[in-house]
Design a protein that fits this description.
Helix content is 46%, strand content 7%. It is of the alpha/beta class. The protein folds into three domains: 140 residues, Rossmann fold (3-Layer(aba) Sandwich); 107 residues, Serine Threonine Protein Phosphatase 5, Tetratricopeptide repeat (Alpha Horseshoe), CATH 1.25.40; 151 residues, DNA Cyclobutane Dipyrimidine Photolyase, subunit A, domain 3 (Orthogonal Bundle), CATH 1.10.579.10. Helix 4 packs parallel to helix 5, helix 11 crosses helix 16 and helix 15 runs antiparallel to helix 16. The radius of gyration is 23 Å and the shape is globular.
Length: 444
């Protein structure tokens, strides 16, 4: 076994590399389409990034199983076209060093990634390639509008969602949904025999069951989306978060479907773009509050209370159902995400970063910008956030959105039994404590 690849193809001529990352598909793929358009042979590459994998706490991570399944499908499609997917494992910079020393790479193509780690990683690879005289072409593909493309009249980024949404819709044109066809160009792939790839076990993980919706939601679901999306017992949400996160379907196809069937769902997709733009422009957000004054809040440091919240043992049925759904399936309903987040921050007065990290570890559809943006929204510390004095009452939310307790009984079957815990805190007392702590910090 080589240090970074189980095998490399025999290369008797120069080739282009299309580096797959958060774009695990072959059709309507901007970078792949551009690489194939050259007519030169193209080899597709995926790297299991050891720097990312080493930070994952659990060795049964649903996201790795989801990725592995997508890679297997891609590999099979490439084999059908007479090529295969080259899979590496290790530190990305070292993997590229090894690859460039053993294959005659002429150019590298990839789609842009806007998260802070990804930008540093890509800049490092770009320097390495530039030093060797190899061009590194990067293309917008993850969003309809890349960061910097939707700005205020003064050239500054939007920090409030509604004006961003209005500008997004104003500058949008259907031509932006024009696909980048690639499947019919697969004849230009680099011909190789089947290549052995790394299994999850070989990179330190185990296969884990996961639940993901279809890559594109059905039209009937979207037509009822506005009416049903807030009710967790209903099949009213799209469940395409993981497909968005890992790019198994193009954003152009997704937005086109939204335009045809649900403007409310389109607005949610624009929220995603808004948070990505925010993270791009304000890179301190993974560590600190968007509004610095909120970093003065004196959070409680009660690990026991945090553990009860994590395990869904708070005594508030809707909160507990949401946390157990997350732990059991890797998914939590959107409305319940807001309620559970608000409960941690405002009822328990625990740092939103604790909850953000738990969601980051558990969510199949975890995306840094959306996770951070929504947690800071719940805490009141983010851009366009809910005001700090808006505190969800979990009982009221349950009566409104799960009145028959159908969702709750699915995940908290003992809710009517003596074994079910009493509420950790009383709502009015917790609300008063929260308001006092926030005012003390914000009045300084």
């Amino acid at each position: 076994m080589t240090p970074f690849f189980k095998a490399l193809p025999k290369a008797d001529r120069s080739l282009h590399i299309c580096w797959l990352r958060r774009d695990l598909r072959l059709e309507d793929h901007h970078a792949l389409s551009q690489a194939l358009e050259t007519g030169d042979p193209v080899l597709c590459l995926f790297i299991f990034d050891q720097d990312i994998l080493d930070k994952l706490d659990e060795k049964k991570d649903r996201r790795l199983s989801f990725i592995a399944d997508q890679l297997e499908s891609i590999s099979q499609a490439l084999k059908d076209a007479g090529s295969d997917l080259l899979t590496g494992y290790g530190n990305v910079g070292e993997v590229w060093e090894y690859l460039l020393n053993h294959l005659p790479v002429q150019a590298v193509y990839a789609n842009e990634d806007y998260e802070p780690y990804a930008r540093k990683r890509d800049d490092k690879v770009a320097r390495l390639l530039r030093h060797r005289g190899i061009p590194f072409y990067r293309f917008p593909d993850q969003l309809i509008f890349s960061p910097g493309a939707v700005l205020k009249e003064d050239g500054n980024p939007y920090t409030v969602y509604t004006p961003f949404q209005k500008k997004w819709k104003k500058v949008f044109h259907p031509r932006f949904l024009q696909p980048y066809p690639s499947l019919h160009k697969l004849k230009h792939l680099y011909p190789v025999k089947p290549l052995p790839s790394y299994t999850l076990e070989e990179v330190g993980f185990s296969c884990t069951a996961y639940q993901a919706g279809p890559p594109l939601p059905e039209a009937d679901l979207l037509k009822n989306y506005a009416a049903l999306r807030n009710f967790p017992a209903e099949e009213g949400t799209s469940r395409i978060g993981a497909h968005l996160r890992f790019g198994t379907v193009s954003i152009r196809q997704i937005v086109e479907r939204a335009l045809h069937h649900s403007e409310i769902w389109l607005n949610e997709l624009i929220w995603r773009e808004f948070f990505m733009h925010i993270l791009h422009h304000f890179t301190h957000l993974p560590e600190g509050a968007f509004k610095p004054a909120y970093d003065r809040i004196q959070w409680r440091k009660d690990a026991g209370d945090f553990e009860q919240w994590c395990q869904g043992r708070t005594g508030y049925p809707l909160v507990d159902a949401g946390m157990r759904q997350l732990n059991e399936t890797g998914f939590m309903h959107n409305r319940v995400r807001m309620v559970t987040a608000s409960f941690l921050v405002k009822h328990l007065l625990l740092d939103w970063r604790w909850g953000e990290a738990w969601f980051a570890a558990k969510l199949l559809d975890f995306e840094l910008s959306s996770n951070n943006g929504n947690w800071q929204w719940a805490a009141g510390s983010g851009c366009d956030a809910a005001p700090y004095f808006r505190i969800f009452n979990p009982d009221t939310q349950q009566k409104k959105f799960d009145p028959q307790m159908k969702y709750i009984r699915q995940y908290v079957p003992e809710v009517y039994e003596d074994t079910y815990p009493l509420p950790m805190v009383e709502h009015r007392a917790a609300r008063a404590r929260c308001l006092q702590a926030y005012r003390a910090a914000l009045e300084k």
